Amino acid sequence: MDKPQFDELLGGSVSLPRDVEINKLAAARANEIAAMTYAIENPQQTKLIFQRLPIHMRRRVMSHNAKRMPRRLREAHKTQMEKSGKPGVPKRPSRKYRRRPHNLLSEYKRRQRKNLWLETHIWHAKRFHMTEKWGFKIAHFSNDKASRSCYRTVKGHCTIQDISYYNCLELKGPVDVLVTALKVHCKYEKSFGANAYKKGDREGSLTFYRANGCPVGVINFMWRLDCLGDKTMWMWVHPSLIKDVLDELVSSFNLTEVSSTAESTLSAKLFVNATGCSLEFLTLNRFRLRGPMAPTVITDALRCPLKLNQVSSSLENMEVDIAQPWHKLWYQELSHQKSFDKQKDCFDKLKKLNSPNQFPRHGILGLTVLDPRFFFPPKRTKVEFKSSTQSYDVINVDPSSAASPLWESSVRGDVKNNFKSTEQINKLKSGNLVPGVENDQGFNQDIITKVPVILVQHPGTEANNKSIGFNSGIDIILPAGWALPFWLSFIYRCARPIGLREHRSAIFESMMLNHPDIHHPDTPEYNREAEETRIKLKNKYFRYPPNRRVNFTKLSISSPFNCEWRMLIKEWTDTDTVQVLRDPKIIDALSQAFNSFIRKKHKPLSLNLHDSTVLDKSYLVTVKVTVETKGKPNNFAIICLPTEEDLKKFNEDRKWGGPIEKKRIDKFEAKRKALRIKHKMLLKSERRKRILARKTGQPPVLKAFLEAKKIEQKKIMDELYLQQCTAVRKSCDREVIGYVAQGGFSFSECSCFGWGYVVALPLLELLKMKNNMVLVRNIQTRQYRCARLDIVNLYS
User: Is residue 462 pLDDT above 90, yes or no?
Assistant: First the structure.
């Protein structure tokens, strides 16, 4: 049944007037509004203020802590809490809470007295295992499982590593003086003064030598492009090499320190000499991005300003105004403005690259970009290739694009001092028409800080069995104080952060051994690192109970935790000088000779390798051993010469597992057992004496006597478990010719291999036998494995 209408015009019973009195209508509605407001402010219900909140916003602590309430309800909540009586006495905070530092900044400075922190330290400390190395706190490895996933990221996307712990040395002076003094520190590669590097549009890399010819390690360097008078060069030195490199530079240039103070740090040192040369430590940040998506990540995170400054043609407008930003003063020069235009064009080309290898090798690109915090995406977003074509041609880059204001110390200081806090930027963003919506393109670029950066291309591996350009990427150099904003900007584009362990794994996959992180046996840092590793592994070995320790004597392993290079060379050549072969011509000749065994095409060699004047037989040659069957070579594995019988068996059966080492007799095993029993009896006897003395009230037995006995027992047992190494070459059934420095499973080759060093003399014996097969045995097994030997080119 239909409901009757209200208006009489529609069939109802009520007659409505055609007009109303505004005063009466407004007064009636005002009374209704007042009544509604009173009902809201004075509810008749018994609910408390915090009970009116939605369930997802309620917290138990709100009942006694008003600060956890929303700000709009906080005062009303306090009023209700006062009506309920005096609040209870809160419990005493925990001891950990009471001992917390009240000033975090001063606490962080105190904790950096021993090891310095990078600018991204706090970000890494929450997500990485940190390690103390070279005077820094450095990220070692990620908390998540990252071995295989990091390889996938290097191969298909982009990894990022903070390498700001590298030392940047700025060397200034007349170019002829610099090149002449630095020439003694180069040997086989292009020197510091090579035209390819001196132009300033490429970064150089070479092995730094002492004046006496002893190698120190690999360093990177770059010349400044736009120098009218004295030239400027930056040298990027690994922190483990900085002391040796600094001593050599001070000696070669006759430098004296002028800024030494009682509290001076390494980064504040300055050295000068009489010829106008100076050496200064700079504080710069450097990130290492590796992977095919490195250009895409960088171009998506960075924005170039539309314009920096109009070029002034009149001299009156060229007056220096100290209050002006640095970029307005810098880009007043026509040459700098032209360089900026070319850099923007090159940056646009960078957006279309499919691989970092499309950028010129070791090329340098200077940029001036906007503060990346204005362009953070709302959430982490994985970037995709912007280019629709699959071209891999190398782009053309103008040499003047390498110019950068970052070379100027005044610019670096101005950029660091004018750093805006994240709070200031968030306040600017909160003033948007719709806060939270990404409309940063609408900001006036004049209020955004301009930051000079430098991009440096890093070519990937060129090995035959590796994918082209694997582990290639781009390094970005930043001014001090700007590491975290740029780091977070790259992280928001899903660049995967890695530590030292993952980086060393990437080097192992790419086999690019001419790297600052790789120390060869003839360098001082290798000896220091080897000794630290030996002590660490030895302590770990003796933490195991006696029945869980590997008996290396029975396995015929003379040096399980280090490589006895000096002794091995002396047993083969009667000399004890450790030298690694670095001559590219000899390395190419050896590689050509051993590759001919695989291809079965014997080509005439360009050099007579058996001539002692061409190749010193005591050299250590860098090699790669790939296991032919099952088995995985590990660190410190020994490389041995096969016998004719071994070669015959392998040629008959390619799946042959390899020979087995004879089990040796440990002549100290019975002595160790007897000493252990005797020591246990001594400990029991001393314990009974202590108990008897405590019961009879006699003076207790001196603990110093017992501690001395324990130390003596430990020293004797250590010597009986790990005897002093007296022979290496003939320590087992097969003659040892070298060691594996690093080994494992390779994801890129889907096989197990290792790289290490062998003595040149037995290597030439293999060459005479026209054979490239060797035997590899790990330190915890008696099983030899057949492996194929290849020569590694350190300069590939």
Answer: no
